[in-house]
Structures are given as structure tokens and as C-alpha cells.
Specification:
This protein is mostly beta strands and 142 residues long. 0% of the residues lie in helices and 33% in strands. The chain is built from no helices and nine strands. The strands form three sheets. Strands 1, 2, 3, 4 and 5 form a five-stranded antiparallel sheet that branches.
Amino acid sequence: MEWDAVTGSSTGNSAITAYSLYWNNGVGTSADIYLAEGLFTTYTIAGLVANRDYYFKVRAKNIYGYGPFSTIEVIRTSDRPHTMDPIDTVRVGTDMVLSWVAPQTGGETIDAYEIKIYIPSSDTYISDPTCDATVDPAFSAL
């Protein structure tokens, strides 16, 4: 979580002495939970749960007290899909059928897979636009 320091006339004509950070940890309660207070503008929270919304707000303090809270910032925890397990291949006549198990999603729906063909002579992988790829509805992972 990161925010901009309060500056100029927004400080209430007094130096900022602390920022108070609150959050709703995404477990369904509407109560805001005090998280930290200090003279910092970056705060790291470890161990969040994937595919959950977290709500944050912050307010500044000077010698006269606290100012109003910021607007609520919603952060959704998600990540790239996990590493794929090896694919299975079966040759059927002149066709090659590929199948695989979908990896852990990282918190979001997987909306596409990218298949590349290895070219040993150049030790590279390419996408072949001439490849006639179809998805078999029997494979729910595809």
C-alpha cells in the first residue's frame, strides 16, 4: 500500500506528524481495522489471501489532530497462473492432440492458453499461425 504525502495548504498549516492506516481485511465485516500509524507513506502487508478484495484508507495527523480519511482504495489480490504441469500428447493420424490439467489460477479466471512450437534447428519456440488448432469440448481444461 502506498500513498502521497500530504503537502502545502492541505497540512492544516502544520507539519504532518503521522499517518494512520486502516483496512477491512476482506472477511466480510464492515468494521475498519486500525493497521498502523507512523510517518511513512508505504506499508507492506504479507500473507494476504488470493482472489479477495481488501479496502484501505489513510488519514494524516498534525499537532491539531487528524484530518479526514482518504477515499477508500480497493485492492484485489491475484497473480499470474501457476506453472503448468507437463502436457500430454497423442498422435492421431497426421494430427497431434494436446491435453493438460489447468494450473492453479492465481485468483482469477484463466481466459487463454498460449501454445508454442519448438524448432530444434534454431532452438526457439514460435507461435504458428498456420496451425489448425481446435478445442475439443470433451477437455474441460482447454
